[in-house]
Protein 1
Amino acid sequence: MRGVLLALVLSALSMPAGAATWWVRTDGSDSCNGTADAPDTAGNRPNCAWRTIDHALSQAKCGDTIDVGAGDFYGEDLKGFPTCTTSPLTLRGAGPSPTGGTRVYIELLDVDESACTEVATGVWECPAPPGAMTSPTSSTEKQAAYQWIDPAGSDYVAWSCQRTDGEMQGWVQLAWMSSVSAVNGNPGSLAYNSANGKFRMRLWNDARPSSTQVAIPKPYGSGIGMDLRSKSGITIEGMQVVAGTATCISPTMGDDFAFRDLTCYGGGIIVQGVSSNWVTNLTIERVKVFNAMGRPLDETQTSCLDGCWEYGRFSSDSQCLQLSGVVSSTITDFTCGHTRNGVSFANGTKDITVTRMREYGAFNHGVQFLSGDGATSADDPSIVLNILVQDSEFGASQEGIFLVCVRDVEFRHITISEPSGFQIKGYITGGRGCPFGLPRNIDVFNSVLNGRNVWYQEIIDARCNAGGNEDFDWDYNVYPSDLPSGTVHRHSASNSTMNLAAWQSWSGDCAGNSTRDPNSRQSAPRASIFKNPGGLNMANDVTDPPLADLVDSASNPAVNFASSAWPGSGIDLDGNARVGTPDAGAYESTVGGSPQCSDGLDNDGDGKTDYPDDNGCQNANDTTEALCGDGFIDAGEQCDGSNLGGQTCTDLGYTQGTLACTTSCTYDESGCQAAPPPVQNLRRDDTR
C-alpha cells in the first residue's frame, strides 16, 4: 500500500500546476507523459514527449501549450480541440519550413517510396499504406481528398490559368482515375490496383517516387481538417499543413481564434458563423494557402489564352479563405495561390481589416464580397459591410475583385494584375435585385488597376431600380492604357467602353453622389509601371509571387503620385515604408527617397541593414540608420560609446589624458590635458 501511495504522490507531483506545456516529437511515444522535450528512450520514460498531436489534444486543457517539434506527423485527425472561453489552447510548431519545420498531414498516410516499382515508362506502383482509402466513391472524395505529391520540395505555388507551362510547386493533388490503365496516359493521376494491392500512379513531370514524397488519404470522414466547429479560444501557429480533407482549418460559431505562421496545402481556411453566433475576434497573420483546387489534367494545352480555362478535377467551391458571418477581425500578410475562388467575404461578414494580401491563380474570383441571398434591406444582418483592404495585390484570376450587393468596402493601395478585372454587381444570384440602396459606398483610392478583361464596372440592379448604386468614389488611381481594347472601363449594362477621360465625365449610370477618378491617370504602356510586365501576361509567372512591382523611375505615373492624406498601414505589400507622397498601388518605389531604414542599404556601415535588424532604426520610416549609443560611428557622430575611432587626446592636440565620448556622440575632452607651462627661474634683485 505504501508503494501505491508513493506512486500516486509522485504522479501528482509530476503534473504541471495551472497552464502547462506539453511536448510532441517524432521520436516520442504516447506512452510517455508528454512533460519533457525528450525522446522516448528507456532512460527518459516516463518524462518524455508524446508521439502524436491527437494524443496531446486528448490530454491538454485550455490555457495549455502543445509544443510540436520539427519533422513529419502523418495520419493526424486533429478533431479533439477543446472549447476555451477564458484562456486559449495553443498548438505551436517549429515553423512552416518545408525542411526544418513542423509538417502535419491531416488524415494522410505515408507511402514507402523505396518500395515502388516502375511498371511502364514513368508509371509506378507503390504499396498501399495500412488503412488507406482504396475506393473513393463520391465526387468529394475523388476531388477534394485524394492524393498528394511534393515534386519540388518547395513551399509555394506559381501557376495560373494563363500559363501553358506553369508549375505548381509544393504539395499538389493527383487526379483519381477509375481504371488502372487510364493512369498510364495521364500525368498527375492515380488509381488502386486491387489485383496486387498497390496504387498505380504517374507523377507530375514524370517524377520518380524516390525523389518525392507521396501521401494517401485515410477513408474519407467529415472532410474537416483541424476541426474547430463550435469551439473557441484556439491558437495555431508555426506549421506546414497538408490536408487530405476538403479544408485545412474550420472554425465555426466561436470566438478568439488566431492562426499565425502557417502554410496550408490542399484545403483552405473556412470560417463560418451565423447571425445568432458570429465568429468574432479572428486573427490571421503570415498565413499561406496553396493548391486548394488541384492541377490541370492537360498542362500541355497550347491554346490556353484569354477565356480558356483547362483544369483537372477540383472542388467547385474550393477557396483559400472563406469568411462567412465573421466580424471584428484582422487579416495581415495572407497569401493565396491556386484555388477555385481565392478569398470570400460573405453572409454578414463585417468590420474586417485586410493588410498585405496577395492572391493569384484563382480559376474564377480572386477575392469576392457577397451578401446573402436572404437579405431584405440595406441593414439586413446578412449584408457584407465595412471592409478595408489595403496594400494588397490580386492577379492571374478571371476577376481580381468581385462585389455583389455590399456596402462600405474600401480599397487603398491595391494592385490588380492582369488578367484580373474589377466587377461590381447590383443583383443577388438568380437575377434578383439587391436590397434597397445596395451596392453602396465602394471606394478605390491610390491603386494601380490593370486587367486583361479590361477594368470594368458592371452594375445591374434591375437597371438601377430602388435607388441603389450610390456613393462610388475612385481617385488617385493609375490605369494602363495599352489593354487589349485600348480602353479603361466597361459598363456591361449599357454595353459601352470608354477611356479614362470619357469615364470621368460619363453620367450613364445611376450611381448618385459618386466621383470618377478626378485625379487619376491613364498611362501607356504597362512596362512604364511594372518591373516585370511579362509576369502579367504569361511570360514569367513562375516566381513567388508573380512580379508586379513598380518600375523605379521618376516617369512612372504610379511613383510619388497618390494622395498622402491617408497613410494607411504605412507599409507596402513588401514591407517597405510609404514616405512623403505615397505611390499608387501595392508597392512603394524607392525613387524619391525612401528612408534609410527601409531602403535596402547599409547606410551607416555597421553591417546591418534596415529596420528591425539595424538597431539604429526605431522604425521603418526613420530617415537615418544612425543611433548614438549603438557602438558604431555613424554619419554626423564623432564617436559612439567606447568607440573613439582610434582617436586619443594627443590626436586632438593635447599631450596627455583620456579621451571619452558624450551621450550625444561627441568627444568628451574633459579628461584631456595640455602640457604644464615651463618653470621660470625668477631673478631676485635682493639676492646677495
Note: The helical segments are 2-14, 53-59, 139-145, 181-184, 500-505.
Protein 2
Amino acid sequence: MSTTDKASTEAPHDPAAAAAAEATAEAAAGAQLSTAPLEDAPGGPVGIGVLAWARWFWAQLTSMRVALILLFMLSLASIPGSLVPQNQVDLMKVAAWKKEHASWVGVAEKLQLFDVYSSVWFSAIYLLLFISLIGCILPRSWRFVGQLTGRPPVAPRRLDRMPAYTTWRTDSSPDEVLSTARGLLGRRRFRTEAGAGSGSGSVSAEKGYLREAGNLVFHVALIVMLIAFAWGQYFKSEGGKLVLRGKGFSNTLTQYDDFKAGGLFDSDDLPPFSFTLDKFDASFERTGPQKGTPRDFKAYVTFSNGAHGTPEKREIQVNKPLEVDGSKVYLLGHGYAPVISVTDSTGKVVYKDAVPMLPQDGNLTSTGAIKVTDGYKNKDGKTTQLGFAAMFVPTFAGAGAGTMFSQFPELDNPALALNAWHGSLGVDSGLPQNVYQLDTSKMEQYKDTDGKPLAKRMVPGESMELPGGQGTVKFEGIERWATFSVTHQPGSGLALAGAVAAIAGLAGSLFIQRRRIWVRAVRGEDGVTVVEMAGLGRSESARLPEELAALAGALHEQAPSAAPAPPAPPAADTEPESEPAEPAEEVEGERA
C-alpha cells in the first residue's frame, strides 16, 4: 500500500476531475468574508439601470475588501475622540480646549469633533459596517443550511488526480470493503453517502462543516458587539460624588457633583439607593524605596436599597465595587478636608464646614478654596464675601525645612496655609465655577500691618486674625473624604459574550479543516478487488495526506493486501536444440 501527496494544482483531464478542481476553487472562495451576488467588471456594474447599479453597490458593500476598509475607517474615526475632549465626558475640559485653541473652534464644531461618537460621519461608518456584516451573514447562512442538509458528492472517476491518493489490492469483496469503509468513516464523525449512478461501488464522506459555522459565529459576534456598544453608549450613565466622612449620598440626579449620560438615558432609570460614609481607612508603606505607596483603601458605608430598604453595613474597595440593580459604585480616590470656622467682627460664627482639598501629588499635598458667600458683614456693617486660597499638607517638613509640600500622605504633621480675600466671589453670575479654585478678579486681598498680602500657616487649633478686627479664621480640625463613581453600563455583559463568541468562532474557522474522502472498491479482471482512497481539502490542509494515510491504514487492517500472483510457468520447448555456435574468427586488427 502506498500513499501519494499530489499537487492540488494539477489540472484534471476528464469531467470528474474537473469537478474536483471546481470544489477546491469553491473552498478557496468560501474563505472570503462574503460572496458577491453579481460578477461585474472592475469599473462598475454590467448593464444599465438603477437595479444594476443597486446590485453592484450591494455586492461591493458586502465584500471582504469594503468590510476591512470600514473597520479601518472606524478605527481612524475613533482617534479624534481620544485627542479632543468630548462634551459627554467633561464640559470643563472642552471649555479649556476651546480657550486654548480659539482659532480651531469653528472648524472643530462643524466637524462635530466635540461629539465624535454621536456625529453624523461616525454614525455613517458604523451603520455601513453594520449593514455590510448583515449582508454578508444572510447569504452565507442560507448556504450553510444547504450544506448541512446536503450529501457528500459522488466520487470522481479519476481518484488518482486528487491531492492525496492511495491504492491497494485485496481479496475482500467490494461490498465488504465499502461497508467497512463506511463504518470506519462514520466512527470518525464523517458524513457518509454510498455512491449511486456513475459513482456506484464507492463511498463519499465529508467532514469539517463547523468551519463555516465558526465563520458565521464570528460575524454574528461582531454584530452583537456593535449592538452592545450602541446600547451602552445610548443608555449609559456615570456620575461622580465626593462624600465627607459622616455624610451621605442618595442616587438622584441633583446629588451628583458631575454626571454624564447617553442620549436615550432617562433619570427615572436610576436605581433608588443611598449610603452614608461611616469611616475611611487608608494605609501606606512607611519605609523602603516605596515609601508613601498606598497599600489599602477601604470605605465603610451604611447602605440602603430603596426608600424603605433595611440599612446594611457594606465595604467598598478600589477593585471591589458595590453592585446595586445593574449599577456599580466604585471607590476612586480620597483626601483631606480641613474644618474651617469664620467669625465676623462681632464674634458671630458665619461659616463652619469641612472643606475638601484636591490632592496634587502622591503625598497628598492639596489645594483648595474656602468661600464664605453669605452672612458675613465687615466692621462697617456692609455685607461682603470672603475667599481663602488654601494649601494643605498632611505631613509638613517643618519651618525652614523646605517648601510647603507634604513629606508623607498620613496625618503625621498637618499644616494649612491661607491667603485671605474680600469682595465678590462671582458665584451669583450664573456661570459654573471650580469649587477648588478662587476667582479673585473682583476681589481685593487683605493686607497685614506691613502692607504685605495677608497669609498664615496654621496647625489644627490655630487662628488667623483678619486686619482691623474684621473677624477670625480658625483651623478647627481635619476630616476625610472619598470620591465615588456610580456607573450604569448596559450591554457590557452582551459585549463580553460577543467577544468570547468571536474568539471561539475565529478559532473554529482557523483550525477546523473541511475535507472530503472517497473510497472506491471494484473487482478487477483477475477477480481481485482494487481499493482506491483519495482526499480533497476544501481549504488548505497540510495534514490531509496524514489523515488519509491513517484512514487507509485502518481500512487496510480490515481488508489487507492480496498475496502477489505467482509467476507464470515458462513455455514448453517444441523445437530441437540448435548446435552451439562456433567462435568467430578473430581477424588481426578487428573483431568479428
Note: The longest strand covers residues 327-343.
Protein 3
Amino acid sequence: MMPRPGVEYSNRGVPVAHCFRGYAPGPGKKHSMAPRQADQKKMSIISRRLSTLSSEQAFVKGHLTRPALVSISILTFITFVGNFTQLQLSAALPTIVSQFHISVTTGQWLTSIFQLVMGVMVPLTAFLTRRFSTRQIVIASMLVFTCGSVLSWLGPSFFLVLMGRVLEAIGTGVMWPVLQITVFSIYPLARRGMAMGTVGMAMSVAPAIGPTIGGWQTDANGWRSIFLSLSVIGFLSLILAIVGLHNFGENDHGVKADFFSVGLSIFGFGGLMFGFTNIESYPPQHPLVWLPMLIGIGGIVWFILRQITTARRFKTTMPGTRSAAEVQPPLLDLGVLKNHSFTIGTVCAALSFFAFSSIMVIIPLYIQDDRGYSATMSGLVMLPGAFGQCIAQFGGGKLLDRLGARPVALAGSLLLLIGTVMMSMIDVHTWIWWISICQFIRQIGMGLVLMPITTWSLNCLESIDVSAGSAVTNTVRQIAGAIGAPVLVIMMETLTRMRQGAMGGGQSAAIAANIFGVRWTLRFSALLVFVQLLFVIFGVKGDGAGSARDVAQRAFARLHNA
C-alpha cells in the first residue's frame, strides 16, 4: 500500500489518527479519509504533552519558548514545595515535642531526617534522569510526597509522623537536581548565572518562610494542619505535572542503578546521625552510641571506596564490548572532586548549610521556650530573613554574570559571619526583633554565597560532568544540613546541662543555662562561617571567579566608553 501524502504514519505503517482513536485497519481495508477536526485537536494535545524539548527548541533567540517556560515554572514550583517542607516544622517543634512527650533531640529528627533522606536520594538523580523521562520522575515523586503528607497528617504516633516525613523527602529529594540539570541543559553558559539566581531565589526563600507559615498554622489549627495543607499542595502539583510538564533529554531504559551503594549510604549517614542523637540519653561508652556511629563510619568508608572502584572500572572498560554493557557508572562520581575549584565550591556550600539549618532549629526553641513567645511570633521573627535572601539570591545571579563569583561570595561570607556573631549576643532581655535583624543579615549573606558559588563550581566542570557534579554538591550540602541540626542541638543541650548544674538548678537557672547554650552554639556556627570565608579568600580563583582587579577594569572601561 502506497503512503498517502499529508498523512502521518506510525512505525508500524498505521496512520497516527487511527492509533489515537484506538482503531487500526485490518488487511484489505481502506484507510478512512482525513481524521475529524476533534481527533486532530486531541492528537495535537497529546503529542505536545509527550514531546521532548531539546535545548534548541527550549531556548530560541535569547528567550525560553512557551512550553519550556511552563515546564521550568512547574519544576520550580514543585522544588519550592520540597524546600518549603524541609523546615516548616521548626516553629512547631516545641509543640510536637510536648504533645508526644519526647526530647528535643528526638523531635528534631522531623527536620534532620528530611534533609538526610534528600541527601541519599540526590545520588540517584543521575540514574533516574537517564532511565526515566522528566514527566515520569516528577509524577512519581509527587505521588510519594502526597502519600507521605497524608500519613503524617493522620498518623497517631510520632513514628508514623516520622515515616510520613521520610516519604515526603523521598518524593522531593530529586526535584532540585532535576531542575538544576534542566537549567544547565537549556541555558547557554553566559545566561546560567541569571537563570540559577532566578530559580535559586525561590529555592532559598522556601525554607526561610516555612517556619513562618508553619508557626501560624500551629497556633491557628494545630501542627497537623501543616500536613493537611501539604497534602492538598502535593495533589495540585501532581495535576500540574500531568497537564503541563514536558520532557527534557533522552532516556536509556537499559541503565541500572547501584542500589547496594544506596543501602550503604543509608546505613552510613543514618547510623552516624543515630549515634550522635543518642549521646543525649546515654553515655559515650554505651553501645547505642558508639555502635551506630561505628557502623555509620564503616558504611561511609565502604560507600566511598565502592564509588571510586566502580568509577575506575567504568572508565577503563572498552566501549562497544560485552562487558561495557554490564558495567554501570557509579552512583556518585566522586571523580569530579579532582577539580580543585569544584571541591572548594562544594565545601563552601556544605559549611553554609551546616550553619544555616541548625540555626533554623535552635532559634525557634529560644524564642518559644526561653522567651515565652508563640509559634506564630517565632515564624514572624524569622520572616524578614526570607525577603533578604530572596533579594540577595536574585541579585547574586546578576552580579555573578557581571563580576564573577569571588567578589560576590566574599561579600556574602562577610555578611553571614557578621549576622551570626550579632545573633550570638542574645540574652534573656534581648529585643526580640534584634533576632530578626540578625537573621535578615545572615540570609542576605546566604543568598550571596550559595547560588553564585554553586554555579561557579559547576561551570568549572566539563559539560559532560555537570550532572555528576550536581549530584555530588547537592548530596554533600543536604547531608551537611542534616548532620548540622543534631550535632549543634546536642552541643546546645550539653552546654545547657553543664551550665545549669553549675548554677544549682531551678527554673530561672534553666532558662539562663539554655540561653548560655544557645549563645555558644551560635558562636561555634560563626567559627564555621569564618572557615568558609577563608576557603573563599584562598580558594575561589580562576576562570569565572572574578577579582577586585577585574571589577575595577570593567568600571574604568564603562567610564571610558561613556
Note: The radius of gyration is 26 Å.
Protein 4
Amino acid sequence: MDTFKRLKQYYWPYKKYFFISLFFLLFVTGITVVYPMVLQLTIDEVVIKNKYSLIPYISGFFLILMLIKGLSTYYHQYLGDLFGITVVYDLRDSLYKKLQVLSFKYYDNAKTGDLMSRLTADVEGFRFFLSVGFSELLRIVFLILFSLSVMFYYSIPLAIVTMAAMPFLTFVVLRFDKRVHPAFRNIRKSLGRLNTRVQENISGMHTVKSLSREDFEIDRFSNSNNNYRQDYLKTASIWSKYFPLMEFIGDFCAVVLLAYGGFLVIDNQLALGELVAFFSLVWYIMGPLMNLGFVVNQFSQAKASGERLIEILDAKEDVREKENAIETPIKGHVTFDNVTLTYTENDDHALKNITFDAPPGKTIGLIGATGSGKTSITQLITRFYEPEEGQVLLDNRPVDEYKLKTLRRYIGFVLQESFLFSTSIRENITYGCPDVSEEQIIDAAKRAQAHDFIMEMPKGYDTMLGERGMGLSGGQKQRIAIARAICINPSVLILDDATSAVDMETEFKIQKALKEVMDGRTSFIIAHRISSLKHADEILVLDEGEIVERGTHDFLVSNNGPYQHIFDIQYQDRKAIMGIVN
C-alpha cells in the first residue's frame, strides 16, 4: 500500500467523487442481495401457499428495485470513472511537468520509449484500478457482508459452513498476489523496452534503410516482442494455476451446502424458498471471492504501474532553482573560473580547470576533437549541468543565482542537430518568443538566409513541417533554427556547429549576417571548420576537457600547436591549388 500512500496527493482531493460513487454502490449491492429474498417470498408465500394474487405486487416491487438499481449503477459507474479520470489527469500533468524540469543528466540514461510507456500504459493501469478495481473490491466486501447477514438470518449452521471456506480462498488469493505482482512489473518493463525499440527504429528509419539493416531491426524487435510475450505467458501460467483452485474451493463449498441444506429442508428445519435464496446468496459470496483474483490482478498491475510512475516523480532534480533566485536582465558577461565537470560519478572529467572571460560583445571560438568538451562549456552557461568545481558567472553573478527561465531567456542556442517541431515554419521560428511581430520573423529569417527558400514553399511561413522537420534539408533546418535563436534577441548566442550542414557559400552568407547579430552580444562558436570561427576574438583549443591553446586565429595559426595542425590539415591543398591557378 506504500505506492498508494505515496500517490495519495493526486486522488485524495477528489475523494468526494469516490465517496458519492460509494454511496450509490451501497444501493446497488443492497438491492442485489434483496433479489434472493424476493425469490424466497415468491416460493414460500406465493407458490407453496397458492397466493397468486400477490404476484402483481411482487412484480411491481421488483420493477421499482430494478429501476433504482439501474439509476444507482449509472451514477456509481459515472462518478467512479470521473474519479479515476480526474486523478489521472493531474497525475499525468505532474509527470509531464516533472519531465520538463529534470536535467540533461536524467535524459542521458533515460529511454524515450520507456518514458512514453509510463505516461500512457502505466498511467492507464493506475487509472483503471482507481475507476474500477477499487470499487470492485468494496463491492465484494459489501456483497459478502450483506449476504452473510441475510444467510445468518435464514440459517446459522449453513452460514457457518459457508464461512468455513472463506479462509481457504483468502489464503489462495494472498499467494496469488505474492506471485503475480513481480510478474506484472516485469511485463511493464518489457513493454517499456518494446516501445523504446519501436521509437528508435522509426526515428532512425533513414539510417536503417540506408545501411540495409531491416532484417537486423526485425530480429531485434522480435527479440523484444518475444520477451514481452514470455513475461505475459509467465503471468498467464500463474493465473491458470490459481484460478481453477479458487473455483474448485467455491464449487466444493456449494455442493456441501446444497447437500446439507437439502437435509435441513427434508428435516423441516429450513423452508424450500429459504434454501433457494440461501443457495443464491452462496454464489453472491463465492463468486466475488473467486473474482477477488481479478481485483488482486488489477491491484498488482496498478501497484507495478504506480511504482514506475513514482520513479519519475522521485527522480533527482540535479539542477534546482534557488528560492531567492533573481530575474535581473542579463547583459552577457560570461566568466569561467577554474571549472571542472564530471557527467558520471567516478568517470573521467569532461572539463578540467576551465578559465576564461568573455565580456559583452566578445566572440569566443571553441575547437577541438569530438568529445574534447566544447559543447560541455556552453551547457554549463545555461545550467543544463552543474559544475563539480569552480564557478560559472554571468554578469559577475554565479549562474545559479538567476531564475532558470530568466537565464535561458537571454541565451540563444543553435545546435548541430537542429530540432524542429511538427508545426508551421512560423511557429518554429517564434517558438522561443511567441509574441514577436511579423516584421521581426521575416528579418530573423533573412539574417539566417532562410527567407528565400521559405517563400518558395507552398504556404510560405505557414507551411506545416513533418516530424522533426521532415521535408527540409539539413541546411534548411539549421537556418530555421538560427532564425529561431535570432528571434529571441539573446544576450549570449551559442552556435554549436550551426553551419555544418550548409554549403560554403551559404555559410559565408550566414556568417556575414551573424556578424550583425553578434554585434554587442557575447557569442560562442563551436566548429570543426576553422573557416567558421577564425574571425572570433579569442579561440580556445580543447583536448580531453582542457584548454591546451588559446589566442586569435592569426596568433594560433603560427604558434606551431594543435590549432596550426588542424589548419594545415584543412588547408593543405590550398597552396597547390593556388599554384595551379597562377
Note: The first strand starts at residue 334 and ends at 341.
